[in-house]
Write a structure and sequence with these properties.
It is built from three helices and no strands. It is mostly helical. It has one domain. Helix 1 packs antiparallel against helix 2, helix 1 runs parallel beside helix 3 and helix 2 packs antiparallel against helix 3.
Length: 118
């Protein structure tokens, strides 16, 4: 039973982490994307794509982990360490996506930089 509770805890923490990061990044990203009139119509698309991919990254990491066996989850502290060990791939996948997204936005602003509103 502890294994199932550990997996549910992992799901809740992964989704909570993703939603929290999306809420923190949403407003500044929208402000950045609307600074350029050529990117302003696409601001909703980029923000929604960002939120969707962050949530899908967290769900993919949780789906790739199985339930801990009873030896791994025989006491509460072992279950806590199992959750902590499986949150690392989540953080790595979201960090990799953030780097790729920042690279994409940098390329967009470099290409459209001459059209920036003054």
């Amino acid at each position: 039973m502890t294994g199932l509770l550990a997996w549910i805890g992992l799901v809740v923490m992964a989704v909570g982490f993703s939603v929290g990061m999306a809420l923190v990044m949403r407003r500044p990203m929208r402000g950045l994307l609307t600074a350029n009139t050529y990117l302003a119509p696409a601001a909703n698309f980029y923000v929604r794509a960002f939120v969707l991919v962050v949530l899908l990254a967290s769900v993919a990491v949780v789906a790739s982990t199985g339930l801990p066996c009873e030896k791994q989850a025989e006491n509460t502290m072992t279950a806590v360490w199992w959750i902590a060990g499986h949150l690392q791939p989540l953080c790595l996948s979201i960090a990799g996506f953030l780097m790729a997204f920042v690279l994409l936005l940098t390329i967009l602003f470099a290409a459209l930089g001459r059209y920036r509103d003054q």
